[in-house]
């Protein structure tokens, strides 16, 4: 019986190891695909600022013109940053705030139906972008990102620092 349990435990450990190796690839795919989608969304807003400003005014948002410009610019630049994995968690936090605000202002009924009617909540437009923002904010950009590349250069001691610390 102990041999069977040991075998099952060993197989499970192999499975977990294999699944963990997919984490960075999965995060990279999510970042690139949805970062690009958000950047395109921002680009579209930048080229239709009058329409976006009008929509924001209909939602009674304060300063709809500057707000539309800020949101469009943030979505465009933040989407690019997310896609390449640079300042990923900061961009992700921005998208969480942006999409939560979108839920509250433009789709309040869906936002308030989180428990009562979950289908209405997860079928709303901001849902996927909010989910992606939360994924990257919590789990980070993964190993395939500019953030990770920069961390390697920042964390790596120079030859002089290495010899000084050895003394």
Task: Write out key terms for the chains shown.
single chain; 167 residues; mainly alpha; 81% helix
Give a verbal description of the structure.
The protein has 167 residues and is an all-alpha fold. The chain has one domain. Helices cover 81% and strands 0% of the residues. The chain contains 10 helices and no strands. Helix 2 runs antiparallel to helix 4 and helix 4 crosses helix 5. The N and C termini lie far apart (55 Å). The model has no long low-confidence stretch (mean pLDDT 92).
How are the secondary structure elements laid out?
Elements: H1 2-21, H2 23-46, H3 49-58, H4 64-84, H5 88-106, H6 108-112, H7 118-122, H8 126-139, H9 146-155, H10 159-166
The end-to-end distance, rounded to whole angstroms, is: 55 Å
* N to C succession of SSEs: HHHHHHHHHH
Report Rg. Answer: 22 Å
Helix residue percentage = over 70%
Low-confidence runs = none
Backbone structural class: mainly alpha
Q: What is the overall pLDDT average?
A: 92
What is the overall number of helices?
Answer: 10
Shape label: flat
- Total number of domains: 1
């Amino acid at each position: 019986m102990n041999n069977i349990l040991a075998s099952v435990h060993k197989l499970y450990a192999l499975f977990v190891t294999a699944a963990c190796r997919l984490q960075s690839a999965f995060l990279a795919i999510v970042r690139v695909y949805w970062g690009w989608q958000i950047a395109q969304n921002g680009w579209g807003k930048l080229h239709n600022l009058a329409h976006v400003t009008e929509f924001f005014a209909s939602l009674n948002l304060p300063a709809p013109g500057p707000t539309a410009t800020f949101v469009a610019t943030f979505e465009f630049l933040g989407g690019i940053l997310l896609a390449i994995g640079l300042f990923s968690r900061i961009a992700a936090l921005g998208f969480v705030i942006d999409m939560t605000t979108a839920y509250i202002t433009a789709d309040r009924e869906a936002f308030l139906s989180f428990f009562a009617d979950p289908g209405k909540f997860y079928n709303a437009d901001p849902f996927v972008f909010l989910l992606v923002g939360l994924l990257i904010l919590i789990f980070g950009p993964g190993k395939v990102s500019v953030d990770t590349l920069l961390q390697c250069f920042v964390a790596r001691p120079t030859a002089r620092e290495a010899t000084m610390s050895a003394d």
